[in-house]
Write a structure and sequence with these properties.
Layout lengths: L1 E7 L5 H14 L4 E7 L16 H6 L2 E9 L2 E2 L1 H9 L1 H6 L6 E8 L6 H14 L3 E2 L7 H4 L14 E4 L11 H23 L4
Parallel strand pairs: 1-2, 1-3, 3-5, 5-6, 5-7
Antiparallel strand pairs: 3-4
Helix pairs in contact: 1-7
Bound molecules: flavin mononucleotide (FMN).
Length: 198
């Protein structure tokens, strides 16, 4: 079994909707078990540095996927709180050599969200994780009319929501891209776990 954890923050549900599609895609890979975890379920450790809530699920995961909306051209405040709360994990390098990947959703087509994604990538590198990229050809190149990776992300999954409810936007192309991305992470994690030295 390969375990994948998808950790996200979402103020208004749009990033959560994408997270759910990443989960669906990952869960479609053979032998995958996927946990969807909101940062609200990951309380910062107290003075004893004990990690409660759903933190143990992250330690048990082969792959952790990080998802945040882009707020003010950057990682959202609540997601950054989660990142900072990992410092004791970092000190012990407990996530070293786990697979990592990231996604962000924003209101504008660009919205400076690549900056957000690169913040997640640096965060994963600080934990000495193995970053997996987007993996879906942008629709500008495929011209197949499916609109997969329509925003042309490479370092991770980028999606865009219009002003509207989270069950409508982001649209079907972004949701399908999220599923392909989730599947890629789960398959990469399985491959990586298989080749682990004894
Ligand atoms: C505080 C705040 C800052 C935002 N900053 C940006 C931004 O820099 N770029 C952008 O394209 N959209 C920005 N947006 C729009 C959100 O990224 C967009 O509404 C997104 O779908 C919200 O995702 P969520 O529902 O998961 O919170 C901002 C929204 C808020 C509330």
């Amino acid at each position: 079994m390969t375990r994948i954890a998808v950790v996200y923050h979402s103020g208004f549900g749009h990033t959560k909707a994408i997270a759910e599609h990443v989960v669906r895609g990952a869960a479609g890979a053979p032998g995958a078990r996927v946990d969807l975890i909101s940062v609200d379920e990951l309380p910062a450790p107290g003075p004893d540095r004990a990690y409660g809530g759903k933190w143990p699920l992250l330690d048990q995961a082969d792959a952790i996927v990080f998802g945040t909306p882009t707020y003010m051209g950057n990682i959202s405040g609540p997601f950054k709180m989660f990142m900072d709360a990992t410092s004791a994990v970092w000190f012990q390098q407990k996530w070293k050599d786990k697979i990592a990947a990231g996604f962000t959703n924003s209101g504008s087509l660009s919205g400076d969200k690549v900056n957000t994604l690169h913040g997640l990538m640096t965060f994963a590198a600080q934990h000495q994780m193995i970053w997996v990229s987007q993996g879906v050809w942008p629709s500008a190149y495929t011209g197949d009319g499916k609109g997969l990776n329509r925003l042309g992300g490479w370092s991770g999954l980028i999606t865009q929501a219009d002003q509207g409810p989270a069950d409508k936007t982001p649209g079907p192309e972004d949701r399908a891209t999220a599923e392909a991305f989730g599947r890629r992470i789960a398959e990469a994690a399985a491959r990586w776990a298989r080749g682990k030295p004894a």
